[in-house]
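Following up on my earlier thread - several people asked me to post the actual chain instead of describing it. Fair enough. Here it is, all 362 residues.
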Amino acid sequence: MIFTHAFKKVIRSAFRLSVPVVLAGALFSCSKQEKEVATPREAEATAIAIKLAPVQQVMWSKPIVSSGLISTDNESRLSFKVGGIVQKIYVKEGATVAAGQVLAALDLTEIDAQVSQARNNVEKTKRDLDRVQRLYADSAATLEQKQNAQTAFDVAQQAVRIAEFNRQYSTIRASVAGKVIRKFVNEGEFVAPGTPVLQVNTAGAQDWIVKVGLPDAEWLHIAVGDRATVQTDAWPGVSFAGEVRTVSEGADPFNGLYLVEVRLLPAANKLASGMFARVTIQPKRQQTAWRIPIEAIVEGQGQDAFVFVPDAQGTHVKKWPVSVAFLQGDSAYIQRGLESIAQVVHEGAAFLTEYSVVTISK
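Reply from S.P.:
Thanks for posting it. Predicted structure:
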């Protein structure tokens, strides 16, 4: 009983001491919370000042840039029909040639022998045919023997035509009037059938073209008649006007690109086959896009990017995903994401997060 009474006394003393401590702690906590809650004036002082830019809907066509080599509309790599030893090349690189002019010839020793052999075979088969026909008239030869002799004679005649044709194309003649721009072999070399010997082009003022390869995403927007500009290192600062003349409907099996041919319009500047050229094509086909200042883009990867959009009250912003079509000058053209957005953050976007408090500057 004495222990119980003493214990109760201790408890009452502890309680009397703890009440002031608890009250003091509560008062300190409330005081701290009151200090942490910022006044409206303090909140306004910490807001980030921003400026908004309007979202403008425009029609656009993305310029397509590629490169290729200048050539001519009618450019030929001339070769021999049959193989043999090159006996003579009559022209040099850069020479002007006329249509039909002899440019190169093979050694005809073997080819002439083949022609002579074919002609002799015709004479033999003709004698055999005459003899069998006489025997057949005397009933000493069968109809089959007569037909076989006739067939052999006909085959021999065709062999002569082949040999004479090969002899004719053992000499290279210019297919068009133009210039020799390249010589691939020299006299005395052996060439196989179809091996290029000379390259000749028309070199006319109306014939310069550039062939470029485009991926399918760019090929889709190209059409015949689209305007183009062509630039070369040979003429720095000079742009040659051109237009798309042909658009391939099938991809190259080796590189997967679609061939587009751009014809250069007549110009006074001198050009040459093989010059490197940069081509910019402006498609006629247009699409809808939304134009915003390029500073409004805060981050991105590839075509995916983000902008900040103000809320209805104008006190906070939201990070908004967009798809960028292309950048040009100080503008960004957006192809998706801003259909229902009227304004984006222009100035101050680099300092914002989704939790930022903002104030809109006029």
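Confidence is low (pLDDT under 50) at residues 1-45. That should answer part of your original question.
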